[in-house]
Amino acid sequence: MILPTIAKMLVQEHRFRPITGRVLCLGPQLVGMHKGQVDALCAESPEEASRAMALWREAGSDTSRVDDKYFFSKFPISQLDSLDVVEGFGGTLIHDLNKPLSEEHHNKFDFILDGGTFDHLVQIGTAFKSVAQMLKPGGRVFHYNAASGYIGAAYVSFGPDLFYDYYVVNRFEDCRIHLLRGTGPHADDPFYIFYLPDARTKKLNSAMHQMVVCLAEKAFDGTSTCDVLPVEYTYRDQAMGEAFTRERVRMLKNSKRPMLTCDRPWLSTVRETMKKTKIEVGYAVERWRANKFVWLKFRRDRKLHKAGTSYAYLGRL
């Protein structure tokens, strides 16, 4: 399902770089919004958004959820496809992502939406490779999957660094990782948004419902690969670590994507600011006691959301 928070993230990505061409959803998607909400979200101005909601009310205020076809009709795409594992649910491409993809589907799509499919798979490496193969040069994939709190609703819960590391080692042009934490018991409730610049932090572990969101962009020049499997940070040898750092620095240097725009409720902002400050102070004291604290490095890392916490709280969306 395309949750309201995910819909807002997709619209922000579209405004940075338009979602055009051929789009693939991994599984046909319902949208957790009615027509009026979708029309208002995709409006170009607050006045147009108000007009869209007024038209929706005049048409009878139908609160039925729309599907992915209606949502993506608001984008200048040429075709919408959906991949499913079995026939009968509306999929236009039938394939089990646990298995390798045939070459006829390579380099076909400009934008792929993984609406919680990866967390139902077993052969994750095969699925990553297939998605990367299906993307055209310059194509983008948007994943959102379980990170915690989804026992019984997903096979696996992901660490954010799995997505980030895969797309870094396969030389993608850009990769942005966010962690979404639920604010309420319902899927349609807003989420608190955390940006993870290097996808590595132990400070956001929680028993609450959390999702990892990854947006990755394939290189336009065809240099991106699909068959390199990452090794987790702790277990890389020196050569592998240096190669990863080199690719990551290149990616960060070239990225032009702005931060997500979110609401900033005062209570959650104060709470998260105090929490992060406490973590940063503890980190600085720990480094100082070990005679490893360097103020200029700490200040630079903190500006990049890398010192102690390795995340930034952006707000609610």
Describe the structure.
The chain has nine helices and nine strands. The protein has helices at 4-16, 35-41, 46-58, 68-72, 124-134, 160-169, 238-254, 266-289, 295-303; strands spanning 21-26, 77-84, 93-94, 109-114, 135-148, 174-182, 191-195, 210-217, 312-316. Strands 3-2-1-4-5-8-6-7-9 form a nine-stranded mixed sheet, sandwiched between helices.
In short:
The chain is an alpha/beta fold. The chain is 34% helix and 20% strand.
Q: Unreliable segments (pLDDT under 50, ≥5 consecutive)?
A: none
Helical proportion, percent range? 25-40%
The general outline is: globular
Widest β-sheet, arrangement of strands: 3-2-1-4-5-8-6-7-9
Mean of pLDDT: 95
Largest sheet: 9 strands, mixed
Number of H/I helices: 9
Report the structural category.
Answer: alpha/beta
Radius of gyration: 20 Å
Number of strands: 9
Strand content: 15-25%
Give the SSE string: HEHHHEEEHEHEEEHHHE
Note the gap between the termini: 16 Å
Show the helix and strand layout:
Elements: H1 4-16, E1 21-26, H2 35-41, H3 46-58, H4 68-72, E2 77-84, E3 93-94, E4 109-114, H5 124-134, E5 135-148, H6 160-169, E6 174-182, E7 191-195, E8 210-217, H7 238-254, H8 266-289, H9 295-303, E9 312-316
Parallel strand pairs: 1-2, 1-4, 2-3, 4-5
Antiparallel strand pairs: 5-8, 6-7, 6-8, 7-9
Helix pairs in contact: 2-3
Which labels suit this protein?
9 strands, nine-stranded mixed β-sheet, 9 helices, 34% helix, 317 residues, 20% strand, alpha/beta, globular
